[in-house]
C-alpha cells in the first residue's frame, strides 16, 4: 500500500469514527501522537501484520497501476500509525518498484510514541525479490533484501548490500523462514504492505496474525490484481470509517 512518496510530515488527516469490536463507536479526531489509533492497533513483538487497501471492486491498484489513487487522508492516517508501530515494512519487489519505495521517515508526533515504546528510531524496509532489482530510493542503511540461494540478486547487488542480504530459502523465499530471519535481526514487528502476490503467499502459509484491510470507494483498474480475502479463522477487532473508506482490523483467533 503506497504512501512512501507522500510527505510524512503533513498534518494528521481527517476525522474517523468507529472503534474496537464491542465498544460503542466514537469519533477520533486528528491527533499528532495518534494515541487512540495506537491503542486500536497495538503491535506486539512477534506479530506479522498485513495492511492493504482494496478498491470498491476488490482490486489492488487504480488506473495508474499503483494503489495511490485508491487511498485518502483517512486510511493514510492509519498507515502512518501502523508504520510507526513496526520494526520493518516488508514488501514484494514489484510493489517497491511500482510504488517507488524509498527509506521511510516517521512523523514527528509519532516518533516520540515510538521512543516511548522502546522501538528503534527508524523503520527498516525489507524487499522480497528474486531478481534483486530495487528502486533507487532504498539504501543499504535502511533496507534488507530478502531472497533465496538460487537468486541472481546476490550477484546483481553491489558489495554495499552484502550485510543486508537475507537468504530465506533455496529456490524460492519461504515466508516463514523470512519472518524468522527478520526476527533474528531484532525485526519482529513486521508490517507487510503487499503486493497481492507476496500477501497471498503469507496468508496461504498462515504467517499473518493481523490483517488491516481498507475498503476504498474508488473503482480499481480492470487489469489490476485482486486483493486476497481475509482467511477463515480471523475475527474483526476494530472498524473505522471516514470519507467513504471503511478500515477493518482482523486478528487471528487464538
Ligand atoms: N492495494 C494495496 O494495498 C497494494 C499494496 C501493495 C501493492 N499494490 C499494487 O500491487 C501491484 C504489485 O503487486 P504484485 O502482486 O504484482 O507484486 P508484489 O507481491 O509486490 O511483488 C512480487 C515480486 O516479489 C518478489 N517475490 C514475491 N514472492 C517471492 C518469493 N517467494 N521468492 C522470491 N521473490 C519473490 C518477486 O520480485 P522480483 O520481480 O524482483 O523477482 C516478485 O516479482 C502494484 O500494482 C502495486 O501498486 C497494491
Automatic annotation (TrEMBL):
Residues 48-224 form the Bacterial bifunctional deaminase-reductase C-terminal domain. The keyword NADP applies. Gene3D superfamilies: Dihydrofolate Reductase, subunit A (3.40.430.10). Pathway: Cofactor biosynthesis; riboflavin biosynthesis. Keywords: NADP, Oxidoreductase. The keyword Magnesium does not apply. Residues 1-32 are annotated as: Disordered. Pfam families: RibD_C. This is Bacterial bifunctional deaminase-reductase C-terminal domain-containing protein. The lineage of its organism: Bacteria, Bacillati, Actinomycetota, Actinomycetes, Micrococcales.
Amino acid at each position: 500500500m503506497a504512501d512512501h512518496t507522500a510527505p510524512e510530515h503533513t498534518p494528521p488527516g481527517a476525522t474517523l469514527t468507529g472503534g474496537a469490536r464491542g465498544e460503542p463507536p466514537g469519533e477520533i479526531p486528528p491527533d499528532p501522537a495518534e494515541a487512540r489509533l495506537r491503542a486500536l492497533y497495538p503491535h506486539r513483538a512477534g506479530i506479522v501484520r498485513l495492511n492493504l487497501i482494496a478498491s470498491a471492486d476488490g482490486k489492488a491498484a487504480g488506473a495508474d497501476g499503483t494503489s495511490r489513487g485508491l487511498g485518502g487522508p483517512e486510511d493514510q492516517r492509519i498507515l502512518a500509525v501502523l508504520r510507526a508501530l513496526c520494526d520493518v515494512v516488508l514488501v514484494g519487489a514489484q510493489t517497491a518498484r511500482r510504488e517507488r519505495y524509498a527509506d521511510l521517515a516517521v512523523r514527528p508526533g509519532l516518533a516520540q510514541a515510538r521512543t516511548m515504546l522502546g522501538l528503534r528510531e527508524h523503520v527498516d524496509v525489507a524487499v522480497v525479490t528474486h531478481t534483486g532489482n530495487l528502486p533507487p530510493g532504498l539504501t543499504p542503511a535502511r533496507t534488507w533484501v530478502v531472497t533465496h540461494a538460487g537468486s541472481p540478486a546476490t550477484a546483481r547487488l553491489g558489495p554495499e548490500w552484502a550485510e543486508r542480504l537475507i537468504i530465506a530459502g533455496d529456490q524460492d523465499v519461504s515466508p516463514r523462514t523470512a519472518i524468522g530471519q527478520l526476527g533474528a535481526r531484532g525485526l519482529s514487528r513486521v508490517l507487510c504492505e503487499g503486493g497481492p502476490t507476496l500477501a497471498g503467499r503469507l496468508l496461504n502459509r498462515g504467517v499473518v496474525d493481523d490483517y488491516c484491510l481498507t475498503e476504498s470507494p474508488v473503482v480499481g483498474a480492470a487489469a489490476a490484481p485482486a486483493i486476497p480475502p481475509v482467511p477463515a479463522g480471523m475475527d474483526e477487532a476494530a472498524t473505522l470509517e471516514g470519507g467513504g473508506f471503511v478500515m477493518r482490523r482482523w486478528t487471528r483467533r487464538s
